[in-house]
Every structure is written in C-alpha cells, then in structure tokens.
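>> received
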Amino acid sequence: MLKNIDIKPQRKNSTEQCIHERSFQYKPYNNLKYLVVGILFGIVFVKAEVISWFRIQEMFRLQSFHMYGVIGSAVLVGMISVFIIKKFNIKTIHGEKIVFNSKKFNKGQIYGGLIFGLGWALTGACPGPLFAQIGTGATVISITLLSAVAGTWFYGFLRDKLPH
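>> returned
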C-alpha cells in the first residue's frame, strides 16, 4: 500500500539527494517519539485483542466479526484520509507535495495475497503486531519475525524473476 504514495522531495544538487536529509540535524533522542508511539500502538493492539491468536483463528474460521471490524475500520480511515489529502492538497510537515500513483493490477498480487493469508492463518500473526506479540511474552513469535524477514529478503532476491 505504501508503494502507491510518492512524496516528491525538493532536490538540492545533481546527486539527487533530498534537502531534508542535509538540512535537519537529528539527535538520537529525537527518535524517542517513535518509540513512544510504537509502545502506545502495541498497547492498543493488545487491549483490542488484535494480536490474539484466538481472535485471528476466529476470523479465518468466520466465527467472529471482531477482526473484520478492526480491519474494515482501518480501511475506512485510510480511504477518508486519502480523500482529505487529495481534496485539500495536504502536504507533508516539510511542505512536500504528496502524489498518489496509480498501480497496475497483476497476477503476482493474487499469489502474494494467498501466501500472505496462508502464513497469517498458520502463524496467527501478520507483520504489524509481531513486535507486540513478542512484547506480551509470546517469544515463539520471534521465529515468525525471522521468517518474515527471510521471506522479504528472498522476495527481493527473486523479484526480477517473478511474474509482475
């Protein structure tokens, strides 16, 4: 999904480096805000039972609306956000224009979605809540995390040979 969003940086010189990479001096403690947001996001996931293996199994067995409601509300918020960004020509906090590029459908998306869904159903975890699951003490999910990283690397290695 994030591949569809293209933030057009202002170019400074012929090396095509973004102005913002050089103009801002970040201190290590500036990243603490991301840590705090990540921890809060994890707490929300835990409290909403989004990371529960049992909730995920209920979803795949069509026994409960809980996960469909969470996913559906996230899609709705995303749709409204994109509409607002386009309607009011909202820019990034650095004043850069946000451009949404059209994406062409291909059969690789079907295969990828099936593999992703199968992995999600078997492990009870998707990439978003992996760290929250590990944080709750389900350390066996570390294997799922390592597998996700390995799968991402493997896809990158084979990407040019795959049907796109």
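>> The chain has a mean pLDDT of 83.
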